[in-house]
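Model: Ready when you are.
Researcher: Fold this.
Model:
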Amino acid sequence: MGRYKNGKDVLPPTLLRQIQQYIDGELLYIPKQSDERAGWGQLSGTKARINDRNDEIYAEYCKGRSIADLERVYFLSGDSLRKIICKQQQARVISGS
C-alpha cells in the first residue's frame, strides 16, 4: 500500500465534503484504476522461489527420498510435503509431463 495522504491536500473541497458524508475521520483505501494487480509474490519473486522449491521437493521424492528426510531438509511438516507432492503430481498429469 502506498503512503498515507491527507484528503485535504489531494481532493477538491466539494469532493472531500461529499466523502465525509459517508466516512468522516476514518481511513479509506482507494484502489488503483487498473484491475490488473500483481499476484501474491510475483513482484518480490517469492512465488517463483516457492515453485522452484516445490519442484525440487517433488524431484527428490521421485528419487526415493522419504517424507521424514524431506521434513528435516526443508523444515516443513509431513502434511505440507504431502500436499506439495500431490499438487506437483496433479500438475504433471494435467500438463502431460
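Researcher: Now this one.
Model:
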Amino acid sequence: MTRSEKHIERQRPSFKKRLFIFFFICISTFAVLSFYLKSTIKIEAPPKDLGQKIIIQLPSGDHIYTYENLIVKENGRLYYKGDRSTLDLTGGIILYEEWDD
C-alpha cells in the first residue's frame, strides 16, 4: 500500500469541521452554564415597612401623600425625611386616610 492510499483510507475531518464542532461545544456550554447560574442565584431586597399611608394637609391647602415612617417630629417641628431630601412640614395637619398609589 502506498502512502497516498493510506492517506485516502484514513481521512480525518477537515479543519473547518473541527473548528465548527469546537465553537458549537463552547457556545452550548456557555448557554447551559448561564441558564443554570441565572436560575440558582436570586437576590431580593427585603421589603421595607414604610408604615400606614397618611395625608398631610399644609396651611396653604396643598396635600402631601406619604407614609407614616417618613414623618419625624423633632423640637416641635414636623419633618419629611426621604431618601435624598428633608422637607419642613411644620403647621401641617396629619390625616390618617388611605390613598391610591
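Researcher: Key takeaway?
Model: The chain is about 35% helix and 25% strand.
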